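Whiteboard transcription, Tuesday session. T.W. wrote the C-alpha cells on the left side:
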C-alpha cells in the first residue's frame, strides 16, 4: 500500500510505499532532501511531521510511514531522478600516505564509467549485507575509477578488517552515487571549504573538478587535523596554494612544538578570519561535531542557511567513520 506524502506550504507531493523511507520515496519521485549518512546518525535529514497535536521531529532517512503524512523538510528541491549503479570494481592500487590513512584506487569494469558529482560518495557492500560509505576523492572527469581515502578505525569491519585482506585484483561491490554534498552552480559568492581528517577526500574532488572547469569564484580551504601527519596530502594542497588556485589554511588542534601555523578548532579559524559570512558559500565535511558547530556558529555570523552544505562522517555499528 502506498501512502501520500505532502510537503507543507507547497504543491509538492509524492507516494511512499510500505516499508520505504520518506527520503527514498522523495528521490524516487525526483525530489532531493538534505541527507548525509542515511543511517539516522548525522541528523542532516531532520525535519518535521505535522499531526493533530502539532509537529514532531523526524529523520526522513529512517521514517517509514504507515499512513499519509504532511512533512516540513529543511529544504526540498526538484531534481533529475537518480540513476545509481552497482558494479564489481577491482583494486588497482593501494597506498598509505599516513599511518592510519589508506588510499584505495578501484578500477571499474571495462566500458563502465562512474557518473557522479564532485563531493558525492559511494557505498561499499560487504559480505555480511552491511555497507560502508566513502567519498570519492577523484574528480568526475576521471570516471573509469574511484579513489577512496580510508581512515583506520580500530576494530572496524572494513578499515581494520576487509581492507587488510585486499590486494591488487581483489573485487569490491560498490554502488554510486550518493550524497547532496556538491557544488551549487549559479552563485557568484566566494567559497569557503572546511574539512577535518579525511573529509579532505570530497573536498579534493570538488577542487580538482573546479580547476578542470576553470571555476572563476575564489576558493579558500581550511583543513583541520590533530597533528601535521594527519594532513596526509598537505603537499598537494600547498601546490594548489602556491599556484594561486586555492588559498590554504591548515589548522592543528594538537600541534607539536615546531608547528608554526594556525592552531585550535578549524571552524573557529574560519570565524577568526571572517567575522561576517554573509557574502560567502560554505562547504564543510568531516566529523559531526565540526559540521554541527560550523552550521550553528556560521549562521550566527551571517551565513545564509541555504548557503551551508555539509557531509558529516559518522560511525555506527553498520557505518564506519572515515575521519
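and on the right, the sequence the group agreed on:
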Amino acid at each position: 500500500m502506498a501512502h501520500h506524502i505532502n510537503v507543507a506550504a507547497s504543491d509538492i507531493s509524492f507516494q511512499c510505499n510500505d516499508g520505504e523511507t520518506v527520503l527514498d520515496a522523495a528521490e524516487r519521485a525526483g525530489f532531493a532532501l538534505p541527507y548525509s549518512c542515511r543511517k539516522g546518525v548525522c541528523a542532516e535529514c531532520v525535519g518535521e511531521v505535522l499531526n493533530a497535536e502539532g509537529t514532531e521531529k523526524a529523520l526522513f532517512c529512517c521514517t517509514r510511514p504507515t499512513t499519509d503524512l504532511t512533512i516540513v523538510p529543511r529544504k526540498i528541491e526538484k531534481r533529475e531522478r537518480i540513476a545509481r549503479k552497482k558494479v564489481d570494481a577491482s583494486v588497482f592500487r593501494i597506498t598509505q600516505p599516513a599511518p592510519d590513512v589508506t588510499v584505495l584506487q578501484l578500477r571499474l569494469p571495462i566500458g563502465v564509467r562512474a557518473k557522479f558529482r564532485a563531493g558525492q560518495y559511494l557505498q561499499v557492500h560487504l559480505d555480511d549485507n552491511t555497507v560502508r560509505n566513502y567519498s570519492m576523492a577523484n574528480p568526475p572527469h576521471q570516471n573509469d575509477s574511484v579513489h577512496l581515502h580510508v581512515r583506520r578505525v580500530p576494530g572496524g569491519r572494513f578499515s581494520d578488517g576487509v581492507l587488510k585482506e585486499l590486494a591488487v585484483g581483489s573485487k569490491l561491490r560498490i554502488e554510486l552515487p550518493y550524497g547532496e554534498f556538491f557544488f551549487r552552480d549559479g552563485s557568484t559568492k566566494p567559497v569557503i571549504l572546511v574539512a577535518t581528517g579525511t573529509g579532505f577526500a570530497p573536498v579534493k574532488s570538488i577542487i580538482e573538478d573546479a580547476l578542470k572547469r576553470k571555476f572563476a569564484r575564489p576558493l579558500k580551504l581550511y583543513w583541520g587535523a590533530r597533528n601535521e601527519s594527519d594532513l596526509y596530502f598537505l603537499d598537494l594542497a600547498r601546490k594548489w596554494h602556491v599556484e594561486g588556485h586555492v588559498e590554504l589554511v591548515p589548522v592543528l588542534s594538537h600541534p607539536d612544538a615546531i608547528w608554526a601555523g594556525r592552531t585550535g578548532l578549524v571552524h573557529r579559524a574560519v570565524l577568526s578570519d571572517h567575522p561576517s559570512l554573509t557574502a560567502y558559500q560554505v562547504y564543510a565535511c568531516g566529523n559531526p561535531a565540526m559540521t554541527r558547530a560550523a552550521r550553528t556558529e556560521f549562521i550566527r555570523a551571517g551565513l545564509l542557511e541555504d548557503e551551508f552544505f555539509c557531509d558529516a562522517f559518522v560511525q555506527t555499528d553498520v557505518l564506519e567513520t572515515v575521519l
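Someone added at the bottom: The chain has three domains: 2-78, 85-178, 191-312.
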